[in-house]
Amino acid sequence: MKLTRSHIIIACMALIIAVLAFALVFYARDEIKPAASHEEKEVATRSAVGNKEGFATVSLSVESQQASGIATADLRGMDSKASAEIFGVVLNPQPLFELRAQYLAALAQSRTQRIALASAQGEHQRLERLYADDRNVSERAVIVARTQWQSEQAKLAAVEQTTNTLRESVRSAWGEKLMSLAVDPRAKTFENLSSQREVLVQISLPYQLRENASKQQMTIGPIGVSDGVRPARYVSPSHHPDTGLSGATFLYLAQGKDLRVGMRVAGRLETGGGERSGVLVLQAAVVWHGGKAWCYVQEESDKFVRKEVNTTEELGGGWFNAEGFEAGEKVVVRGAQLLLSEEQKFQIREENDD
C-alpha cells in the first residue's frame, strides 16, 4: 500500500494525541488519588445510622450539624378538642336564586291581584245596592260586575297556587331553613350569597357523626391551604347527595373569601370528646417518605430519632399529635431532609456491601 502525504499527517496527529493523553493521566495521578480517597473517607465517617426500639436513628457530629445548617425547635404543648376530618364542596346557589326570584314575583303578583279583587268586589257591591234601590242601574251591569269579581277571584286563586307550588319546590330541594329564608324578601343571607361574602357549602359527614352536625363547631377551608380555615355555620340537612363522597350531607354557610363554586373543601368537626393534651408538630419539621410524614427528634447532641407524625388533625401551621411526642422535645425544623438523605445513603451502602 502506498503511503500518501495525508496518511502520514493523520498518523502523526494520532501519535501526538496519544502522547498528550498519557502525559495528562501521568501528571494528574497525584491529584486524582487523594481526592478519591478523601471522598470515600468523608462518606464513610460522615454519619452513622442505627435503630432504637423500632425507630431509625442518625448520628451526626455537632460540627457537621453546624456546617449543614441543621436547626431545632422545642415542641409546643397544647390542648385540642377531639375532632374528625370532613370534606365537602361549595354549591352553586343559582338554582335557589331562580326559585326565589320566581316566588317573589308570584308573591308580588298575588298582592296586585288582591287589590284588583277588592276593587271588583267593591264595584259589584255598589251596583247591587243601586239596583236594589229602585233599579237605578240595569241588571246587566250588576251581572257584568259580578262576573268581573268572580274572574278576579279565579286569578287570585291561580296566583296563590303558583306561589305555594314555588314555596314547596324550594322546601323539597333545599330544606325548611333555606325555604324560610328564600321567601323573606329582606333576608340578609341572600344578599351575602349574591355578593359572595358568604358561600353555601355541602359537607359529607360519616353516618356515626351526623348527630354532631348541628351541635358541634366546624371549621373548613380550601384543600391544601392551611391558612384559609374559617368557621362554618350550620344551616340544615341537605337534600342533595354528594356523588364523590359517602355519608350524610348537610348545608353550612361560611365566609366566601378564596372559596368558589365547585371547589372542594376540607375541615374538622368537633366530636364532643373533650380536650386532649398533646403537641403541635410544625410543618417545617415534617419530611415525607414512603407516603407518611416523619420528623427527627434530637435525643442527644449528636443523635436524632425519626418518628412518624400523625397528620389526621391539622391545625394552623402544623399537626396536633396526642401520642408519640412530649412537649419540650427538640425536633429538627431545618435540615430534616438532609438527615433523611444520610439515612438512605447508609441503607444503599449496606445493600451494596451485601
Task: Please explain how this structure is put together.
The radius of gyration is 40 Å and the shape is elongated. Strand 1 and strand 2 form a beta hairpin. The model is unreliable at 35-45 (pLDDT under 50). The longest helix is centred in the first third of the chain and has 42 residues, at 5-46. Helix 3 (94-132) packs antiparallel against helix 4 (139-174) and helix 4 crosses helix 5 (176-182). The two termini are 57 Å apart. The chain has helices spanning 5-46, 62-68, 94-132, 139-174, 176-182, 188-194, 336-353, and strands spanning 48-52, 55-59, 71-74, 76-90, 198-205, 218-222, 230-237, 248-255, 264-282, 287-289, 292-300, 303-309, 314-315, 318-321, 330-334. With 354 residues, it is α+β, with helices and mostly antiparallel strands. The protein has 7 helices and 15 strands. Strands 1, 2, 3, 10, 11, 12 and 15 form a 7-stranded antiparallel beta sheet that branches. The chain has a 6-stranded antiparallel beta barrel with strand order 4-5-8-7-6-9.
